[in-house]
Fold these 2 entries.
Entry 1:
Amino acid sequence: MMRIILNKQTMAMTTVQKATFECLAPVALTLGATLLCLPAQAQDKVLNLYSARHYQTDEVMYDTFTRTTGIKINRVDADDAGIVARLKAEGAASPADVILLVDAARMASADAQGLFRPIKSAVLDKAIPSNLKATPTPDGVTWTGFSTRARVVVYDPLRVKAADVATYEQLADPKLKGMLCTRSGSHPYNLSLFATVVERLGDEKGEAWLKGLVANMARQPKGGDTDQIKAVASGECAVALTNTYYAARLLKSSKPDEKSTMEKVRVVFPNQGTSGAHVNIAGAAVARHAKHVENAVQFMEYLASPFAQDYFANGNNEFPAVVGIKIDNAALKAMGGDAFKAENIPLGVVAKNMTKVQQMLDRVGYK
Ligand code: FE
């Protein structure tokens, strides 16, 4: 009977509201909390998705999933931090089944806070390279990457030679003093990169490298990746770091100032002769308190399908995570994104090194 009340409540709500109220509505009816969020019946053809992605192309991806499986998607959109805060606030009452976030550092952080549920999937084991996922435990894998982005160097060809910025290590060379611009060192994009550099170089050399970056700064870290590219184009800096999709977005822009920005800079995929360019992920995880676990796993497996991969990656000018799917993106190709060597350090190490790297940043004064 309680379920009937709940269903009547939810049926009257809009799609997005429904995800919010599926568990919360009965609170107003003062029913016992333990009764509110009983595991959904297997026949419930519903999936509650919390997404930090806001791309129009995703709509086709979701609609196609619903059409082929009959599973309706209720979506809650928020930014990464908002989603994590919401999951924590909702606790066991959370209606969330699948969480979409960007960056391994954010995934690792949410995972460390116990917000994800490990799953086992032979489909995902086969489709997604193991370095693009959380480190597996006997219970399964918590988060999985479904698209990748490389963290590349942008430089001013009038002031810097390509050979001087061919590796991440060279960014700490005193030769580049007063030339480097980055966003905050603590931003997840940089934390993830730094965590893998420290993994490769070891703690001592890794921290010395971070100190070298600080010594080469043209200004205090500020702004986002696009701001760094624009700062190189304007001459404020000569070298910067950006995720590939920001550069691709500017390359595709119809705004004259953004087009001219990319004409003034060059892009380098670092470490092509050694460890490969650092790649990060946008990915998904099943929520710790998911009520529709089977649907959630089915959705995760769908994200690895060639059809969904096309939308998932292209929606944000990213690369597919599934091996063997070719990119079809002129801007990424123009940068050399169709044939670069990617780092293969498991992104699970980001979780392992994150706290250590943050402490190093504090010690070397990387704002
Ligand atoms: Fe971004």
Entry 2:
Amino acid sequence: MSEHTITVAGVAVDTRHWIGGERVASAQTFPDVSPIDGSTIGEISRGTGMEAAAAVAAAKAAFPAWAATSRAERARILHAIADGVEKRIEELSIVETTDNGALLRSHRRGVMPRVAHNFRFFADGLLKLEHEDFETRGHTNHVSWDPAGPSVLITPWNAPLMLATWKVAPALAAGNTVILKPAEWTPLTASLLADIAAEAGLPAGVLNVVQGYGSEIGDALTSHPDVRRISFTGSVPTAKRIAESAAANLTPLSLELGGKSPLLVFADADLDLAVDLAVEQYDNAGQVCLAATRFLVEESVAEEFTRRFVEKAGQLTQGDPRGEATDIGPNIHPLQLEKIDGFVQRAVAAGARAVIGGHGKDGQYYAPTLLTAVAQDSEIVQEEVFGPVLTLQTFATEDEAVRLANDTRFGLAATLATGDPERAERVTAQLVAGTVWTNCFFVRDLQAPFGGSRHSGVGREGGTWSFDFYCDLKNTVTSPNGWNNHG
Ligand code: NAD
């Protein structure tokens, strides 16, 4: 084991970058801290412009051969990566939980199987990717998906490997080479992914992983003229910075950003179901981009809804995310905790009432919080908290519900609880949201488009939309005449 390898819950993790099929160390490191107990897990290579340039150069060098590799062979390697993920689900799960504090049982049963599925889904999708030819005055128009080139993929800490592979898999399937930059608060599973990909036979330079602070290494990646695609999941301020940086080369961008999504509860809803959906919004300690953090409840059922919600939320167990019975783990970082509490204290000072919670607990835990008496134009209703903090407002009419639901700068998702299918259809048609769930939450077929409107994002990924983004689409028009010159 090299001096750059750390052992995390019994799993060896290399702390260096992965560039051109080799481990590369930086002169400096940064500490990776576990949110479970605040302990330092290890020192990670702290990338600079130099490593960013090396990674792009490696991706550029590897691109022609990977782009020319047959679809069947690319799909085979992606399936081999999925096999590697499945073999290491236990290791990936414990490392991810140690790094980001999300529930171990969720990683084992939901997240890591989904990571493997990301690779299988885009491998299979690649093999089916084709478009019917168009005919114009006897001329054939044939559409092809050409690999675009080196792609920079930048990801956040709230679901590190799931979100990274949601980009890595389609980019590799498309024939692109990749430079993955995971979040500095959760660098570990991206390093394990590099090992798994190498073992699966992915050629050197096709997947590169660079570690470091976004503020230090980000610009060098996103402004690089050899980069052909940038896909980013993260916050709105960072997205704006990346868009400015990418503008120099007009590099195409896909942006998956934050939200302030509503849960609309109508009086005709199954109230127990509505409460179940509402309590689910504390999942991952509220660190979910899609979370329906604004409850909009019809006046006539608001009191009963609140009573049942408080009762159900009171049954949640908060604590060590490795515990089988734990429902809510810690928040990611002391800075995030400070941010969450700042939002809550300012809201309370402005007149909000904490029905439950409203304060931090021991360590990096924040009590599940529900705030009422919040104004529509207040910070707590308009801004994403990214913690276990929900608000509740009431409405009198369907029109008012729609108006409140749409009245933020975001448009990522919306959830409806209603027993009336016609109402569901009418309301859905008026909502600004990339995803609308009716009487359910978080279920989604990977073939469907995913993304947000307004400040929640630019573009859609998922299914063939991912291939559209990661490829240069080409239309080849062929005349029915002229071949006989060579006959
Ligand atoms: P963030 O914007 O702070 O960081 C995201 C990534 O960007 C990190 O890897 C970071 O190092 C990098 N980065 C920072 N500055 C950069 C720069 N100048 N250039 C290039 N990269 C840079 O976001 P976060 O706090 O890690 O994540 C939370 C946010 O992500 C929330 O807003 C959440 O809603 C959003 N999110 C969205 C989705 C979605 O699919 N829409 C999914 C998960 C999270």
